[in-house]
Design brief:
Largest sheet: 9 strands, mixed
Structural class: alpha/beta
Radius of gyration: 27 Å
Distance between the termini: 58 Å
Length: about 650
């Protein structure tokens, strides 16, 4: 039986409560918006494009410094905007999109048509703001402003070639000067331009040259790690107008407000990834979500999946979910059903695309779904804010939103043909790069659940660890491992002592620095190879060795790996003449479980700070914990845990 409620809105909320832009406007008028900023993401979650644009204009009136004073832990992202045309609507759109993900925008806008100066001059104001993300927004006019009338396709080809050389040089310049990510985009080709050619052969030549230039821009991102190229053609294909003729001519705004809004949404996804907020696990309902009908009422033969038109729509959604799962996203199902009929459908129904082995966990019972989600996150050793929950029941979605506000909720309804579109709209799992470790993640989490089942067969944790046969290897990072180490700094939140986010170029520079070291942590055990699961960043300053950061994947907590690696680092420091090791801890809302990591392993606190946490909300908050620095005098170094084998690639003792 499906439950619903008559006294909630479509999202399970109270319909009498002021929502969205109206509530934001009320707080702004009352001077309370900065103080209530942590509540803004919930208000923006389900707004349509028009309401979101209005909310963005209101939020853009806020002073970011005022928000930071109220909430110093909210991550801020500095975004520099430059380009060819008028880009004023981009600031409120970006403000709203970052706010949707709990981020605070600090914008910088360059001068009109100032992109060449902004990106070519290391002394420009753009570089002075040290952007996390720099947007070089390109449009068709950047080419056609330099094409004389009358023109032929070969004239456009000549200008395109020159622009590509210029843009490639600017991207190289940015990579050499800045630490952040540069975003380029392909140029949509409006029919207003192609229609000015009266013969189809010339139109075809222009289209080919234009698309070849777009392909060249897309390929640039493969050659430069600090570069991302957005394909605007994919957004235009959704029906978003490329241009608005009046704004194009009267305001020199060469991309439509709608397209700039969709562009801003993609940047919001990128900012979320760069601040370590990419989601890790997709949790789907079953009845009405993966198949039509209610299994308990209709039986295995009566549910809709395959064969009928609606059944094919559910199969299409399953294909989308399976595709997402093939790229490192964990898949789980949580359903109010009896477990055995669910298992029969997943194993035997001929219409199913998804099978039991595609999921790291299938939970079928009659408990509240928010309880099941919290338990699932605990089983996977991830935060509930790493979950995305997709369900067609407004009642269930509303309960999850209320009880677990950190969970991203995807609203599905009775039209399965739109399920995939709604799931993908927010790019919850978007990342800049996909590594081999990502593709192996689901298998490794299944191994982790097998480890937990194995643990249940032991009376003590010590007995379990002794039989687990943990093997740890600590060694200097190699070039091939740089992307994975960078990814760990971006995504690891719980065991991350300083939460310093690093791009591949940053990791590479540290590895090449003669006074610094980047160490990769690998682990394996009787259930399989966990891969590269952590990193340690060291820096030498005379007789002092600094641990600038230490991070470890949540998959391998509580096995002594962190203790073994810390022991190896301390031994390395002593063997190379260090008199002490200093290590900072910077609290965030999600790394509270490691606040005492250094004191538990022989370090003494030597300094403190103001407690400038990076982020708030979610689980594992820091309370009032302050940033601090810890010192180890290297006089007494504990041995690594006896239950594991440490392979010390620093030249120390292998145990």
């Amino acid at each position: 039986m499906r439950l619903n409620t008559a006294d909630t809105g479509a999202d399970g909320s109270d319909p009498d409560r002021p929502m969205g832009a109206e509530q934001i406007s009320a707080w702004l008028r009352a001077g309370r918006l900065a103080a209530r900023y942590p509540e803004v993401p919930g208000l923006l979650a389900d707004l349509d494009a028009t309401a979101l644009a209005r909310a963005g204009r209101l939020l853009a009136r806020l002073d970011p410094d005022e928000v930071a004073r109220h909430h110093p832990g909210i991550p801020s992202v500095t975004v520099a905007i430059t380009g060819h045309g008028t880009l004023a609507p981009l600031v409120p759109a970006l403000t709203a999109e970052l706010a949707r993900h709990g981020l605070l925008l600090r914008p910088f806008s360059g001068d009109f048509d100032g992109y060449v100066f902004d990106l070519s001059d290391p002394g420009s104001a753009l570089y002075a703001v040290d952007p996390d993300i720099a947007l070089c927004v390109l449009d068709p006019a950047v080419v056609f402003d330099e094409v004389a009338v009358p023109w032929r396709p070969e004239d456009v080809e000549r200008v395109l070639a020159g622009k590509l050389r210029l843009i490639e040089w600017l991207a190289e310049r940015f990579a050499a000067v800045a630490r952040g990510t540069l975003v380029l985009n392909t140029l949509p080709l409006p029919s207003l331009l192609t229609s000015q050619l009266t013969d189809h052969r010339s139109r075809a030549r222009l289209g080919a040259a234009w698309r070849e230039a777009g392909a060249a821009l897309l390929r640039l991102s493969a050659a430069q790690e600090s570069l991302v190229t957005l394909d605007l053609d994919a957004l235009v294909a959704e029906g978003v107008p490329a241009t608005d003729s009046r704004m194009d001519l009267y305001a020199r705004m060469h991309l439509s407000a709608g397209l700039l809004g969709r562009y801003a949404r993609e940047i919001g996804h990128l900012a979320r990834d760069l601040t370590g907020r990419t989601k890790k696990c997709l949790v789907v309902d079953l009845d009405g979500t993966l198949w039509g009908g209610v299994l308990g009422d209709d039986g295995r033969e009566g549910i809709e999946v395959g064969e009928s038109h609606r059944g094919e729509a559910f199969r299409a959604f399953q294909r989308t979910v399976k595709q997402i799962g093939s790229q490192g996203v964990l898949l789980a199902a949580v359903s109010k059903n009896d477990p055995e009929p669910v298992r029969e459908v997943l194993r035997e129904h001929p219409g199913m695309v998804l099978r039991e082995d595609d999921f790291v966990r299938v939970v079928a019972n009659w408990r509240p779904k928010h309880d099941n989600l919290a338990e699932l996150a605990d089983d996977l050793n991830i935060g509930v804010d790493s979950l995305v929950f997709a369900d067609d029941s407004a009642f269930e979605r509303g309960l999850v939103r209320r009880e677990l506000p950190g969970v991203a909720v995807v609203a599905l309804d009775g039209e399965p043909a739109l399920h995939a579109e709604r799931l993908l709209a927010d790019g919850w799992f978007d990342s800049r790069d996909l590594t081999a470790d990502d593709r192996a993640r689901a298998a490794r989490y299944r191994e982790e659940l097998a480890r937990r089942d194995f643990l249940d067969t032991f009376d003590s944790l010590e007995g379990y660890l002794a039989e687990l046969d943990v093997r740890v290897r600590l060694e200097p990072v190699t070039e091939a491992q740089v992307p994975r180490v960078s990814q760990l700094t971006l995504r690891t939140n719980q065991f991350n002592l300083t939460t310093r986010r690093l791009q591949p170029a940053d990791v590479r520079a540290l590895a090449a620095d003669p006074d610094a070291s980047v160490l990769a942590i690998h682990s394996a055990d009787r259930f399989g190879d966990n891969g590269l699961v952590g990193a340690v960043f060291l820096r030498r300053d005379g007789s002092v060795l600094h641990i600038d950061n230490f991070l470890l994947s949540c998959r391998v907590f509580s096995r002594g790996i962190e203790q073994a690696c810390l022991t190896a680092v301390l031994r390395h420091g002593a063997a190379t003449g260090a008199k002490a090791v200093l290590a900072p801890y910077r609290p965030t809302a999600r790394n509270g479980k490691v606040r005492d990591f250094y004191p538990r392993h022989g370090f003494s606190r030597v300094g403190g700070g103001s407690g400038d946490a990076e982020e708030t909300g979610g689980t594992g908050g820091t309370g009032g914990t302050e940033a601090a620095e810890f010192r180890h005098d290297l006089r007494s170094i504990a041995a690594p845990p006896a239950h594991l084998r440490l392979i010390d690639g620093l030249g120390g003792e292998t145990q």
